[in-house]
Each structure stands twice: as C-alpha cells, then as structure tokens.
Amino acid sequence: MSIELRHLTHVYAEGSAFRSVALEDINLTIRDGDFLALVGHTGCGKSTLVQHLNGLLTPSSGQVLVDGEDLAGEGVNRRALRMKIGLVFQYPEYQLFEETVAKDIAFGPKNLGLKAEEVDARVRAAMAQVHLDWQKYAERSPFELSGGQMRRVAIAGVLAMQPEVLVLDEPTAGLDPHGRDRILGIIEELHRQGTTVVMVSHSMEDVARLATRVAVLSHGKLLAEGTPREIFSRQEMMTEAGLAVPEAARLCASLRAAGIDLPADLYTEDELYDSLLKRWKEAGR
Amino acid sequence: MNLKSITLGQYYPVESPIHRLDPRTKILLTLALMVAVFLVRSLVGYALLLGFVYLAARIANVPFKLMMKGIKPLRFILILTFLLNLFFTTQGNVLFHWQFITLTDQGLKLSVHYSLRLMFLVICTSLMTLTTSPIQLSDGLEILLSPLKAIHFPAHELAMMMSIALRFIPTLLEETDKIMKAQMARGADFESGNLIARAKAMVPLLVPLFVSAFRRAGDLAMAMEARCYHGGEGRTRLRVLKFTRADLYAALAVAGLLVLIILEGRLLPAGWLL
Hints:
The structure holds 2 protein chains of 2 kinds. Chain A has 2 domains: 33-55 and 76-216 and 224-237, Rossmann fold (3-Layer(aba) Sandwich); 246-285, no CATH class. In chain A, helix 3 packs parallel to helix 6 (147-159). Chain A is an alpha/beta fold. Chain A is globular and about 70 Å long. Chain A has helices at residues 46-52, 78-84, 101-111, 116-129, 134-137, 147-159, 177-192, 204-210, 228-232, 235-240, 247-257, 269-284; strands spanning 3-12, 20-30, 35-39, 61-66, 69-70, 85-88, 165-169, 196-200, 213-218, 221-226. Chain B is mainly alpha-helical. Chain B has 2 domains: 3-132 and 243-267, no CATH class; 154-226, no CATH class. Chain B has 11 helices and 2 strands. In chain B, strands 1-2 form a two-stranded antiparallel sheet. The radius of gyration of chain B is 24 Å and the shape is globular. Mean pLDDT of chain B is 85; it is low at 1-8. At the A-B interface, helix 2 and helix 3 of A face helix 8 and helix 10 of B.
C-alpha cells in the first residue's frame, strides 16, 4: 500500500483571528515496505501531517492518494481505509478505556466487524507481537499496568487491526531506555515482516538505526527527503531545521575537520567504528 | 466535527481601546448597560442602545456581525417569548380576533419589548466577553467581589476556580479531539447509528477523558501545593489592575447613554412608537 501526498497544505482555523498554516505544499510518497522517519523540531507540523495519512484530517488544499485513490474523494470508505493505515498517537496509553487489556485490544477488530473467534485470535496475536503474556495480562485492567506496558497495550490495539501501514507519532516519548528499546524492537520486527512504517521521532540515533528513508520538516515545509545517508551528510541543512545529526555523524565530521581521512557520509556507530578500526590497522602496519 | 472551531468565552483577541479597559470597568458598565436595557420605554431608546453598541463594536475592532451572532442560539427562546406575550396578553384594545386567538395592542407592545430586551441583554454581555479575556474577567470579578469577604464569601476561591476551569477548557477540548481521533483510528464511529448506539460510542471517549481530567486535577493540586499555595490570604498579583483615563471616558459614555434613555422615557409622549 502506497500513500502519496500531493501539494498538501493544511491551515488551522481558516478565516479567523487564530488562522495558522501548519503544512505548506508537501509532496511526499510513502512506498510499500518503506520505513520512513519523519523528523523536525517541535511544532513543525509532524503530527498534523501524520493525521492526514489516514484521513483524520482533510487537506485545506492538495491531495492524499492511497494506492492512487484520493482520500477526500466522494464514495471513499474512509473508515475502512483508516483501519488499513494504523495510527498510533503520541502517548497512546491515554486512549485506553476498557475494563480489561483483552477487551481494549479487541476494540479495533470488533469495529472491523470480525467474528468473535477471529477477534480473539487477533487479540492473542497482537499481544504476542508486543510481548505481553496473554495468560498474565489479558484479564487485568489496563489502568493498573506500568506506563511502558500501557503503551504496548495501546500499540497492540492498533496492531490487532492488522494494518498494512503503521504510522507512529513519537512512540517512545516519555519511556525509560528499557521501555524504549522494547517498543523500537517491536516496530523493527513489524517492518521486517513487511509492514510499511512511518515514524515520527526526535532521536536521530533511532532514525539512523531503523529508517530506510528520512523526511525533514521545518515550519510546515518539507526541507529534504532521502536515505538516512543522504540526509545525515547534510549537517548544515539539519542545523537549519533545528535538528542534530546522529552522534556518530557528528563525531565523524569533527574527526574529518581535525584532518583524519574518513568517508563523509558515515552515520552509524558501527560504520564509524569499522572505518576507524580499518584506518588504525592500516596505520599500525 | 472540528472542536478547534469552538471559540470559548468568545474572546476576540485584537488590540483596541476597549480591550485595554480595566475588566472591573467593563463588568460594572455591562451591568449599567443591562439596567439601561430595562429602562428603555420606546423604540427610540432601543435605537439609541443599538447605536451605542454598534459604535462600541467599531471602537473595539470586533465585527458587529460576530456580536449579533450571540443571539442565534437564543432564537427559539426569543420566538417563544414573542409568541407567548403576543397571544396570552388579554389586556388592551383588541386588534384582531379569530376563534380562540386574540391579539391586543398591549400584547404586541409587551412581546416586542420583551424580545428586544432579551436580545440587547445578550448583545451587551457579548460586548464584554468578546473584549475581555477570561483570565482578566475572573481577576476583575475577584476584586469586585472581595468586599463580600467580610461576610465569609469565598471571593478568591471562586475566582481561582473560575480561572482554573477556564484555563482547562481548551486543554480538555484538545484532549477530547485527540482521544476522539485516536478511537476513530481504531474504527470507532461517533457519527452514525441511533441514540443508544451513539451514547454507547461515547464510552471510549468519556472514560479516557475522565481519567485524564482527574490526573490533571491531581497534578495541578500537587504543583500548586509545591509552590506553597494556601489560598488568597496575603497574595499579591502579577498584573495589578489600574483604572486609567480611558476607563473614565467609558464610564462617562455609558452614563450619558443612561441619561439619554431616562430622558427618552420621560419626555416622549406615552405610547409614542410603542
């Protein structure tokens, strides 16, 4: 499933004193199997963009095409499409409402109109995907779990609909390192199994490690888009957008500035380590 | 549904001499205007009021249309007031009679008066709410009510509760919007089905909303206590309210209007233009 944004513009409170342009002329294509990271400083329009991907917001002008079909078009079943494009909001644990974890996760599949057995199977599968033991957690109240566990329940609630595209808005915000690694591991696993992923993130390290493509937003405009290697080699552009590059890329740039001959486009720790090791070995010989 | 489009407290944030007036002045003058509304005896008086309000809207940089919009939610009450007074007043000369329906000149007069009064009450208050931010309003109210502290009226607490409530309305609206969208992303349907289905559909919205409202209340109480809040005793203000020359002019303008309206009631022959 591919999603194409064409000249997407979104204006909040058009025609009033509160008018503000959140997104301006965004052109972006999310292809099947992509892991697209959406980066940008706070208030640059990431969350607004994300809500266009499954039709929760409609563009002020421009189009969102899902498999070539305009989301705002007449006769489009937005509710059905919404469930194929799973959206996990920021702090999704605040949307939990059911008495038990299993019931909460079942909310989405039930809305799909599935049979009870199928719903149950999907709940179990989704819980397994987020590493929550069914035996232990299915009948517990979601409100008595820890923050990280609640977030996994909320993500399971979206996964249970088996979306083809998974969109996550800062899925690791406010979690401890352990909880963060868990969530990122789950997302990585889903992508490996073929789910298209769009993730909003502030951590360039996570982006460097996981994303296949990066889109940089700044003040509602798409500043750049490309592979992590292309994006992270443009340090000036990233600074302009109010962002940092991964620590490895920064270290690499400093080393190059100090006269050490390294490739210009290294951005992961492993790459940097390997090149440094190679140089060290060559020098030692 | 777009919750962002709801403007609460109806504050219209622009720069104008009326926006800069002391909130106490605006509260008191609004009360004076309401008194004026009840003193009006003829259509001339209403015309005077309308002229005054229109002028005030121009000075306040607020579209006059927006002010008139405040009447819209009241249209049923207005129509009802008009019709009830029209048909159920039996005093006065009969103008029209058909079977059980009787229209009298007194009835016509009363119904026009009552519905115009209601309209002007709404317009006058919206002049205040459109030009005064909710925070200013509760600040002004607190000071105006503080003499009542002598009889143990909790003026400060009331104002504090009001400002907290007002402060959290946009937050809760935003939260509602967000939870609604999150549930819609999971296929919730808030817009179709019969009454019972719709009421049931609200559960996934209301439970998280209440949970977060309680969490926020707890957090806020904690944050206030951590900064040693212990009620109004001995508290000073960040924004000290001060009467200026503009407040005097505003008061004079309203006083002038009051005089004109009283004169209008006395001088015009009775029954002239209603």
